[in-house]
Amino acid sequence: MKFAGQLFRQDVVFPLIKSIINVPEQVGVSKLSKRFMILLFMVLIATMLAGCVLQRPQKDIIAKNVKLYYGDNNNERLVTEERQVSYRRGEDKYKATLEELIKGPLDESHRANISPETKVYGTIKQGSDLIVNFSREFNNLGGSIAEIVARGSVVNTMTQFEEINRVKILVEGNEYIGPSGQPFGFMEPFPTAVEPPQVTAEVTLYFGKKDATAVVGETRAITISPDTNREKFVKIVLEELIKGPERRDLSPTIPREVGVLSVEIGNGIAHVDFSREMHTKHPGGAAGEAMTINSIVNTLTEFVYIERVKMTVEGEPMLIEHAFLEEPVGRNEEMIER
To answer: How many domains is the chain built from?
Structure first.
């Protein structure tokens, strides 16, 4: 191919053509033959040059094996797939890798959390930091856990390159905003185990006065995941109630051995089923029974979606002393000391 390049130099090609033109007709070369020879010569040069053009891109294509990060089937861990990514020399290898990531996993047990409609506008490398810019489709995520795994997929896939330590995500040129309303900024590699985000909820738990004449509210902060449903949330609240008060002037109303077997909520009624320890470990007495009932009911009716509470013990109506609770019980404001 080097020879073809040399042939195509002006100081070589033109003299050759000129020499063909100047071949005297006496030697048996007609004008038509001269034209044919010139055409044949040019076709030969063009063919050789075409071979150079066709071969050059092959030398410029780089194929690299990379790890692409996805969620496992339950989105509990980050898992990897090895894939070959091809790009031309001088092109953005990070963009090519992200585009391969967005195509989704080949393993059916792996889970893609980034929409396949997402486009990669480009990347910018700043020292050991990388900024990636996605289209708005990146925002189409299926919940808080999927959002974490999607970010982890991008960050861990990019930080596998030795020269990249941190990654910042942009969407349509703007910093990606988290559930807190604040941008994430530059992110370091994620652990493979995905920890669900946590939020804090303040609740009011009602405990008994020392003389068992009333219940008193105590505010407590409870940490839960954002996708916690009502039933699970109420179960957590009841478990906090069972732990007892933090204030020394208040008394627990439920034996610590009691377990919350189930919670069902519907039509404003919370059906709570306790373990047998509600009967076997309870100290008894009418006053103690009143404290337990009012503690549970007034705590749960703090929530707007609960108006009454039906209490059972292993499926049977709760009976501590003398109140056989076959029907749901409503809030008792008179028993609350302000």
So the answer is: 3
What's the pLDDT tens digit per position in 260-309?
999 999 999 999 999 999 999 999 899 999 999 999 999 999 999 999 99
DSSP secondary structure string for all residues of 35-80 = HHHHHHHHHHHHHHHHHHHHHHHHHHEEEEEEEEEEEETTSSBEEE
The predicted model scores a pTM of 0.51
- Position 280 in a domain: yes
pLDDT digits (tens, 9 = 90+) for 6-39: 444 555 555 555 555 565 554 455 555 656 665 6
CA 9 to chain centre: 59
| Domain presence at residue 189 | no
User: In 3D, which of 177, 187, 122 has the Cα closest to residue 157?
Assistant: 187
Handedness of CA 75, 78, 84, 90 (dihedral sign): positive
Write down the number of H helices and E strands in the chain: 8, 15
Full domain range(s) for residue 221: 199-335
- 88 within a domain of the structure (yes/no): yes
